[in-house]
Protein: Site-2 protease family protein
Organism: Streptomyces tricolor
Amino acid sequence: MTTATTRRGERQISPVFVGILAVTAVTGWATWTGFAEQPGIAVFLFVTAAWIVSLCLHEYAHARTALHGGDFTVGAKGYLTLNPLKYTHALLSIVLPVLFVIMGGIGLPGGAVFIERNRIRGRWRHSLISAAGPLTNVLFAAVCTAPFWLGALDGVPLEFRFALAFLALLQVTAALLNFLPVPGLDGYGVIEPWLSYTVKRQVEPFAPFGLLFVFALLWLPSVNGAFFDVIDSIMRALDVDDFSRYCGEAHYRFWQDTPEICSFGS
């Protein structure tokens, strides 16, 4: 029986998520129209709110795919309401990713919704559940970059163009990091069902430290350079120019001096 999954309250969009969407819409409008007295603040709020929306959708994709895969408990846990406060680790899912955006301009993979994997039958289903989250970031990146690769930037205000470019950068970095086959990340979750029992047992103790290991590696200049070379290649393939990305990040950090080249008045 799956009647528990059809209860209205378990699928009803949370007012918390609606509020985040409202902030995204209002600050997006302020960024587009130049209504805000300090445009940098509008860019900051718009990108941050949209980033949180993407984090919610990322976790929702995991949960929704798990529901269809056989885990009927995700509804009762509140995962289908898009409420970030219902996540198993709100700190990892929301707070840390936002802090990393503010400090480093990088899309930190979030986590986590707790999926009862014993309810899921079939290796392909397990892999798809893990892939659903980062694939949402890929889709979000495609939407953000659509005006660039469609050549539809005419009439798009500079500040909004900059904000979209930086938001797209966050989505691409999040997707790439998430797809790394490192224990604790979604990429490992994709391949884990296909590994032998022995390998999985050997890897399991390292899963809680996988993300820390990745960011420790990113502190190494050679690894960091190689990582962002890949990011740059992807962004250029999507026709997002370096200038827009650079200025988007510069305006996002409104508390710092904005380079003259990125001035909205130029």
